[in-house]
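User: two proteins, same treatment. go.

Assistant:
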Amino acid sequence: MKTLNKVFTIVMMVTVLFACGSKDHHDNANQAAEERADDSKKAADEANDDKFQTNKAEEDADFISNAVASNIAEIEIAQIGVQRSNSAEVKEIGRMLETDHNKLLKDLQSFAAKKSISVPTAGDDTDRKKIEDLNKEELKDFNKDWCEALVDKHEKSIEKFETRLQKTEDPDLKTFINSALPHLRSHLEKVKACHDKIAQAGK
């Protein structure tokens, strides 16, 4: 009996140690991802500061850099919707957003290369936190919170695109923004409609 108790105690200790180790590993992985994202954005911003000598050119570069980071995050959020949602509509919108934002990301990266603009390879810290929260979200609240996150992202993106359109003196950037805005507005309408339907169903 004593032997069995000893074995049980050892098994429990190993289980607890493994659980703690798994949590530490998960936390360390999240911290490392956040640090890589922060380093990537910081490096891109510093490189652009060194490259561009006028405020206008530097502001255009910052816009492209921020738009790349935002698109990377929106692709990840879209993927989470496809993976976690129990709603066919959310999954469908998620797949559409993933496809469209992958295309926009490639277009942004091509534009950046053409203009010698440095861009990050990950989303910013705020987006990383939102992605982490959505991955942990309880399923009963997930669809509503997912839609709200994307409504917020698209509203902010549209505002930034419209502001840059008014301020930039680069005709190529004006053309690029004008081609992207209709897609962003369409995304916002679809995500808002989905959110309203979910909210109505929850009443």
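Protein 2:
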Amino acid sequence: MTASRPRFSQEFLRVYRRVIERSDADPSAINTDEIVLTHYRLRKLDNQNLGLNPGETGELSGTTAAGSAQPREVKYGLLQDVIDKINELFAGTGIEEVNGVSVTETILRHVVENQKIQAEAMANTPIDFETSPTIVAELEDVIYDSGIGHSQAIKALLQMTNLAPLVSVLVGMGLYEKTRSEAERSASAG
């Protein structure tokens, strides 16, 4: 009797998972607020040699020389690759690079807050997520909402008579450092 019980639980969870992950399911309809962790189990794992250095007892080797690090692939791609994609997106529209980057950053901030897109991200691999029809369907609404919010914020800034608070916000966001960095980059490039 006890041998069939875990099998039943596994089967139930497998079927229930399909119900939860349905594409037409509303992620906000699943309420997990009252789920409470009541039991847990800790167990000690056997001591094992991690084999960090072949033939040695598992000690880490330190830095051997300054600058000995190997270049690594950045998780989200090189910044220049992202900027090139943004430029391709807005090619022929007359949109300047800085405005294209700004608008895509704004949309990104709004997209990551979308609950349906969050559910897609949690239920899919990166490749499946990128090709999900839910993203395309939700993106139009996000673009409109972002545009309205952005326009209202710009309008509010244009109506302000005192921009000193904006200067304070921008300085807090790194305006001084970023401006100096850009000036140095422009001077060395030119």
